[in-house]
Fold this protein.
Amino acid sequence: MIPREAVRVLVSNWDGNHTVPSRRLYPHQWSWDSAFIAIGHSRWSPRRGRAELLSLLGAQWRDGRVPHIVFNPRVPDGAYFPGPDFWQVRAPSGTSTSGIVQPPVHALAAWRTHLAEPDPAFLRRVYPKLVAQQEFLRAARRSPEGLIAIVHPWESGMDNSPAWDQPLHAVHDRPTGYVRRDLGTVDADERPTDRDYERYVALARAYRDSGYLSPGAFQVEDPLFNAAYGQAEHVLALIAAELGLDPEPHRHEAAAVTAAMVEHLWDGALFQPRDLVAGRMIRSDSAAGLTPLLLPGLPGDVVERLISTALDRFALKDGVLPSFSPAAPDFDPVRYWRGPSWVNLSWLIWQGLSEHRPELARPVAEGIVRVIARSGFREYFDPFTLRGHGCSDFSWSAALLLDLVAEHGLEALTPPGGEVAEEQGSVTEADDIGDQVPA
């Protein structure tokens, strides 16, 4: 059964106190990966979901930032680039980390983990850390429009989206002689180009050399990042109320960022990024522009127009959502974030639709199950052929499948035959999964 295979993936990728995204390509702990993974863990082992988040938040910096990578000291230095030697930082815990961040979906993960097995002590531990994460973003990244700016495409989570092509043109790069480890695992046609990576490295180096203080040549108000930030404030209000604290500051901030997004990023059909360096909106067809559906306070007329765009440009009713509109000239069905369908992005949009238009949410959930049934727990998928690309046994694909199944019911979401594609391996290899998992 698909859920048993999903648990097998999470068990095989567990690394003591956290889950790696994949064994071969991503051997460390990634920030928003761990949030999604914790949500999946909570559906079968809430203790492991709590451990996932506590491990990540244990590497939080004194200024409140939650780094996008926490490096495992047992992994050889050259196994991933850019690694600890490049970033040159240690968290107060002594752990080596990167110096940038990723979308703040962690409050949602903490709340969902708590709901799976209520644990007020866990909430009391993570609440101040989650508040500090938000406070860092306000202090270091707040734009004059009241939105949060990202300073690197990696911070968006959607690394090589065509939305970033324009602002990346302003980045002056030079060859650095680094070795791309990703191309030893995944075909080059499915990954960002060498030119993309040169610019990514140049941006990261400049930010590092500023002491992780100066934003540099890439400063963008990203719809997905700001939607995650706004939803985090909404969820922090729920956590505060659960702990007997005042939820109003969080509610006020959630409302403020929602209003700022509508005022500054809404183009009448889709939420768009805004380039702060150039001082203009970036016109793109990225599915990140649909993620503000996560915001409970989004005005009704904006919700309706946004859903119309999802139906028109992204074939929402087909269920398998591309990360970029297939009608756009920059669309590529197999290259990373330039078009393939990703489980986490589809899951975020499913979350928003569940709040605003439940009847449209179900096809998205069923689409996620359909691609996994066809191609296994891959990193991303061709939205037309459903063929899997990138890594196999990818953790957040497995984790969020577990969440969908738990939400909708196994029988309703198990495809005919009840087994994943043959490439995923035999279910009988994990007959006693429960016995393999430490308490």
Notes: The chain has a mean pLDDT of 91. The CA atoms of residues 105 and 410 lie 26 Å apart. The first helix runs from residue 2 to 13.
